[in-house]
Design brief:
Strand content: 35-45%
Strand order of the largest sheet: 1-5-4-3-2
Number of helices: 3
Largest sheet: 5 strands, antiparallel
Number of strands: 5
């Protein structure tokens, strides 16, 4: 089993250009302002779980958002990510079986 985890403070201000680098317009609409930090955490968690690193955030696409978490797609593979938040921090967990 591969596991990737990321945690970020939810209240840290980020520059507007960071959002443009991290998310395409479709992702931004899907996430809405309150979930942008969660989206970043999800991308980081998947990149860590795959061992590839998050060198180019545009290659990691958030394709689905639900109450259970987010789905991040990379190289044609969809990775489910569970999310937790206590209001101050966001935690993302990606786990999947290796083939």
């Amino acid at each position: 089993v591969r596991v990737g985890v990321d945690i970020e403070r939810a209240d840290v201000a980020r520059a507007a250009d960071w959002y443009q680098l991290a998310f395409n317009p479709t992702e931004t609409a899907l996430l809405q302002p309150g979930l942008l930090v969660a989206g970043w955490c999800a991308k980081e968690a998947v990149a860590k779980a795959t061992g590839l690193g998050l060198h180019n955030p545009a290659q990691w696409l958030i394709t689905q958002a639900s109450d259970q978490g987010l789905t991040v797609q990379h190289a044609g593979i969809a990775y489910p990510v569970q999310l937790w938040s206590d209001g101050a921090e966001v935690l993302a967990l990606c786990q999947f079986k290796c083939e």
